[in-house]
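From the methods appendix. Each design record in this collection lists the discretized structure first, followed by the designed amino acid sequence. Records were kept in a plain field format so they could be parsed without special tools. The example shown here is representative of the layout used throughout.

RECORD:
C-ALPHA CELLS (419 positions):
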C-alpha cells in the first residue's frame, strides 16, 4: 500500500531538513501560496502583490538545488505573467542570485552569536549586561514556556497587543506579521513574569540546517521594567547554548550597512536608504533598533538581501504593498497621522461633487449651455414614445448625471483598491 505524503507534512519535513534561513519556519504559517515542483526536494513560499510574486526568505531546499529551484520558479512566474522577488534572503542565496544574473540588493545585516564562545562578558556587551542585571534585581523571572496554558496564552496575546499599540508604526504584514503562538509546537517560547503577571515574551524559530535559533519576536508590555527584553534574549541564548545550537540570530537590522552594495552600485537605492535612515527614522527607529542589537556584541554580521527580476520600481512597489496590509500610505505615516490616508479619496470625492453641483448650477442659470447637449441627444435619441412624444430631456439629463456619478464612483473605488 502506497502512502501519499500530505503537502503540509512534506513542507515541515523540508524545513526540518533544509531550513537554513531564520525565516524558514515562517513559511509554514497560514496564508502563503507555494511553488513546490515534484522533481525537486524543496519549495518556495510567496504572496502575489501587483503582479509580482513576493517570496519569503530563501528557497527551502538543499544548497545544491537552490539555483535549479529559483530557475524553475522564474519559469513558473513567467508563465503567469508575474515578476518575482525574494525578501529577506540570506547571504548564501544572495551570492547564488548574483551569479545567476539576478539583481541582489543588500537591505541590511543580520547579527549572529557563535554560541560555542559568546557571552555577555567584556566591555562590548557592558550595556546589555547591565540591563540584564537590573531586570533580575527588579524581580523579573524568565522561563521557557513548554506546557500550553490558556491563561498564559491569553497573557502573551495581551502583551503582544499592548506592544503593537505602543509602537509608533502601525502593524505590518508579510515577514513582520505578529503571530507569537503560530506553529508553537516547533518554536521555543520564553516568558518574562513579574509579580505573577506575564510582562513580556520571546519566540524563537529553529533553522536546523544551520544549527540556528532565530529570534522571531520580542514583545513586552509598555510598563515592563527596563531590561525585560534583554533578560529574555540572554535567557534564550543560554538555553540555546545548553541545547547544542551553534548560532543565535536577532533578525535582520534594516538598512544596517546597506549604503555599501556588494553586487552592484544601485546608486538610487543607496540614496533612498540613506534618506530613509534620516527621514523615516521617526516612524520605524531604524537607528535605535540597530543600536539595540549592537549592544549584545554579536560575534559576526551577515548581509541580508532583496533579490528581484526586471524593474526595481515595480518590485519595490509590490514589496511595500506586501508589508502594508492597510495600504502603502499606512506604511510611511506614524499612527497619529494615519487619518491622512483618507484625505486623497475625500478630496477627490468632494471635488467630484463640487464639479457636479457647479455644472448643474451653470446649466440652470445659463440655458444656452444646454444647447450642445440637446443637439447631441437629438442626434443619438431619435426614438419616439407613445403619443408621438419626443424623448424627455429631463430624463436624459438624469441619465447623464447617473453615468457621471457612476464613473466617478468607480474611479474612486479602483483608486482605493489599488492602494
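DESIGN:
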Amino acid at each position: 500500500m502506497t502512502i501519499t505524503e500530505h503537502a503540509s507534512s512534506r513542507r515541515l519535513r523540508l524545513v526540518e531538513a533544509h531550513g537554513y534561513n531564520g525565516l524558514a519556519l515562517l513559511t509554514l504559517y497560514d496564508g502563503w501560496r507555494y511553488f513546490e515542483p515534484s522533481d525537486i526536494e524543496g519549495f518556495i513560499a510567496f504572496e502575489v502583490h501587483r503582479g509580482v510574486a513576493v517570496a519569503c526568505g530563501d528557497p527551502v531546499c538543499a544548497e545544491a538545488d537552490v539555483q535549479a529551484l529559483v530557475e524553475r520558479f522564474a519559469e513558473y512566474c513567467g508563465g503567469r505573467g508575474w515578476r518575482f522577488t525574494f525578501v529577506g534572503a540570506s547571504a548564501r542565496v544572495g551570492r547564488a542570485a548574483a551569479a545567476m544574473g539576478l539583481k541582489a540588493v543588500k537591505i541590511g545585516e543580520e547579527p549572529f552569536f557563535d554560541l560555542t564562545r559568546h557571552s555577555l562578558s567584556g566591555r562590548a556587551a557592558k550595556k546589555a549586561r547591565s540591563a540584564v542585571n537590573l531586570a533580575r534585581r527588579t524581580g523579573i523571572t524568565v522561563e521557557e514556556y513548554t506546557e500550553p496554558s490558556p491563561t498564559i496564552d491569553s497573557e502573551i496575546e495581551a502583551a503582544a497587543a499592548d506592544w503593537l499599540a505602543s509602537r509608533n508604526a502601525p502593524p505590518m504584514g508579510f515577514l513582520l506579521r505578529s503571530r507569537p503562538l503560530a506553529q508553537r509546537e516547533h518554536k521555543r517560547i520564553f516568558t518574562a513574569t513579574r509579580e505573577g503577571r506575564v510582562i513580556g515574551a520571546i519566540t524563537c524559530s529553529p533553522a536546523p540546517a544551520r544549527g540556528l535559533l532565530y529570534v522571531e519576536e520580542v514583545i513586552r508590555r509598555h510598563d515592563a521594567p527596563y531590561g525585560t527584553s534583554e533578560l529574555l534574549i540572554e535567557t534564550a541564548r543560554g538555553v540555546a547554548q545548553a541545547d547544542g545550537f551553534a548560532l543565535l540570530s536577532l533578525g535582520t537590522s534594516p538598512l544596517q550597512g546597506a549604503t555599501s552594495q556588494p553586487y552592484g552600485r544601485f546608486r538610487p537605492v543607496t540614496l533612498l536608504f540613506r534618506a530613509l535612515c534620516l527621514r523615516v527614522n521617526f516612524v520605524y527607529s531604524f537607528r535605535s533598533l540597530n543600536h539595540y542589537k549592537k549592544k549584545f556584541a554579536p560575534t559576526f554580521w551577515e548581509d541580508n538581501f532583496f533579490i528581484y527580476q526586471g524593474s526595481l520600481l515595480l518590485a519595490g512597489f509590490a514589496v511595500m504593498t506586501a508589508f502594508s496590509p492597510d495600504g502603502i500610505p499606512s506604511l510611511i505615516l506614524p499612527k497619529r497621522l494615519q487619518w491622512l490616508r483618507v484625505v486623497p479619496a475625500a478630496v477627490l470625492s468632494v471635488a467630484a461633487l463640487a464639479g457636479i453641483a457647479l455644472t448643474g448650477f451653470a446649466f440652470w442659470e445659463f440655458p444656452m449651455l444646454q444647447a450642445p447637449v440637446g443637439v447631441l441627444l437629438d442626434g443619438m435619441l431619435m426614438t419616439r414614445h407613445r403619443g408621438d412624444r419626443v424623448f424627455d430631456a429631463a430624463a436624459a439629463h438624469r441619465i447623464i448625471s447617473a453615468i457621471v456619478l457612476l464613473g466617478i464612483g468607480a474611479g474612486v473605488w479602483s483608486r482605493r483598491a489599488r492602494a
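APPENDIX NOTE: The chain has two domains: 7-333, 343-418.
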